[in-house]
Design a protein that fits this description.
The chain is of the alpha/beta class. α6 runs antiparallel to α7. It has a single domain, classed as 3-Layer(aba) Sandwich (Rossmann fold). The strands form two sheets. Strands 3-2-1-4-5-8 form a six-stranded mixed sheet, sandwiched between helices. It has a two-stranded antiparallel sheet with strand order 6-7. Bound molecules: zinc ion (ZN).
């Protein structure tokens, strides 16, 4: 597999909310002088399984987009097997509705692109051994400067979440060090889900491992709240209305928590 196009400039990622999370050093005076004025913004790819998977990291995506990063959300499936609150039958109409919800959420978060790879929901395992999931994800991951994805737990454990994380990690770890995207797994710190019953059975992580917190502003929580309102098939009105504030008060607490994959 050949990578398409040049990697974007990682060095400019040293400022802003990503400062603590990124290993890149600030530009030296010489580098600043040499940097082309039209340097493309760094590419941040959220590699996820389904529409609404972006919600647990939504304030970070909004913050990155607001700060000028090129943020691309990639969903492997349209979520055509997940009727959620809607009770709609599984199938193409549900998938189409959820694709539209993903586009709506992407606009609310201010991200540049929302892409769906079109695999069937719940069937990603059948696209692992034949390499088709890896091929579909390859350019998105290999050309990224930063990849945000589920951790090995997949949040509440969905196999599709775990597989997208594993394949994204597999692609990144094969890249040479000087061209490897940084991969961060979103995580819920131990003890933060107790006040949020819908997340009671989600996996949590030792906070000591969550060393890549991404700070956000009030306006990013507001963007996340607007994004939550898009997912009408998945959540009832009260859940949509309260989700971002509840995340802010519990699992985020001022930062969306991530840990480096390597
Ligand atoms: Zn999902």
């Amino acid at each position: 597999m050949i990578k398409q196009g040049p990697k974007r400039g990682l060095a400019v990622m040293a400022s802003g909310a990503m400062g603590a999370a990124m290993a890149a050093a600030p530009l030296s005076a010489d580098e600043k002088r040499l940097a082309p004025p039209d340097l493309e913004p760094p590419l941040v790819v959220a590699a996820l399984a389904h529409p609404d998977d972006e919600m647990p990291m939504s304030a970070a995506l909004a913050a990155l987009a607001r700060q000028g990063y090129h943020v691309r959300i990639v969903h492997a499936t349209p979520g055509d097997a997940g009727p959620g609150f809607s009770g709609l039958p599984k199938g193409e109409a549900l998938g189409a509705a959820r694709r539209a919800e993903a586009e709506c959420a992407g606009k609310a978060l201010g991200v540049a692109e929302v892409i769906n790879l079109g695999f069937r929901d719940g069937e990603l395992a059948s696209h692992v051994r034949d390499g088709s999931l890896a091929r579909a994800l390859f350019d998105h991951v290999a050309n990224a400067d930063l990849v945000l994805t589920w951790g090995p737990d997949g949040g509440y454990g969905h196999a599709d979440h775990r597989l997208v994380s594993a394949i994204a990690t597999q692609i990144a770890q094969a890249e040479p060090a000087d061209d490897r995207p940084k991969v961060l797994y979103v995580g819920l710190p131990n003890g933060t889900t107790a006040g949020l019953p819908p997340l009671a059975d989600w996996a949590t992580t030792d906070p000591a491992l969550l060393t890549a917190g991404m700070a956000y502003a009030k306006e990013d929580v507001a963007a996340a709240a607007r994004a939550a309102q898009c997912h009408v098939t998945q959540f009832d009105a009260a859940t949509r209305a309260g989700m971002a504030a509840a995340f802010d008060a519990t699992i985020w607490g001022g930062k969306v928590h991530f840990r480096p994959a390597f």
